[in-house]
Amino acid sequence: MLEGDAVDSRSQAVSQKYTNGLRFTVTILAGTLAVVGSRLVGYPSAGALGCIMTSFVAGTGWKRRLDYDTNEVGAYLDLLWKFLKPVSFSLIGKEVNFDVLEGSMVLYGTITLLVAVGFRLVFSYFSTLGSDLNWKEKAYVTLSGFPKATVQAALGPAALDLARSLNATDELERAQTVLIVTVVAIILTAPLGALLMVKLAPKWLKKDPIGEGGVV
């Protein structure tokens, strides 16, 4: 009887590994298809939205499965992103032309960034109103709207790529300005925001005992 249980357990483990691998592969392929397909049909900006919708629909569907607790797709994607993140930021750095870098450009870009982040923090706080979160948890959710990096890294070079594809030489300088402001946003917000979130999470967030509400 014990041997049969052990065999069943090993069989379930192997089946779950196969399921996780299949889900991971389908998620990656669906995101790739959304990006490439949107470019082919002439709507390149829809690719990012397609990736977001893919993750949302997949995560919502998997939560309804009995094996959701053993779902490791998130861990696989996180591991993949750890390798791709330096590549993404390196490609952005390669595109930055420091010959057109001016002090006024950095100054106005920084001011624009601070104003935008200010609005983002305000609306992040408004999004927590009416919830059961305490003030520390609301402050942490608000703070999570501060770091800016991943989306900027993906969309920052878009204007420059578009200007080059259209041979719009008169717009290249503006596209470079967009890219430089993107880099400024990453440098000023990503490290500080990540540091604050890591340091404040143990102090501002708490975890309820299992079966009593989960993570607060």
From TrEMBL:
Protein family: Belongs to the monovalent cation:proton antiporter 1 (CPA1) transporter (TC 2.A.36) family.
Name of the featured protein: Cation/H+ exchanger transmembrane domain-containing protein
Single GO biological process annotation from the record: proton transmembrane transport
Pfam families: Na_H_Exchanger
Organism field: Culex quinquefasciatus
Stretches that traverse the bilayer: 21-37, 105-126, 178-198
Superkingdom: Eukaryota
Gene Ontology CC terms, in alphabetical order: membrane
Location(s), subcellular: Membrane
Chief location category: membrane
Source taxonomy: Eukaryota, Metazoa, Ecdysozoa, Arthropoda, Hexapoda
Keywords for this protein: Membrane, Transmembrane, Transmembrane helix
Bilayer topology term: Multi-pass membrane protein
InterPro entries linked to this entry: Cation/H_exchanger_TM, CPA1_transporter
One Gene Ontology MF term: antiporter activity
Cation/H+ exchanger transmembrane domain location: 52-190
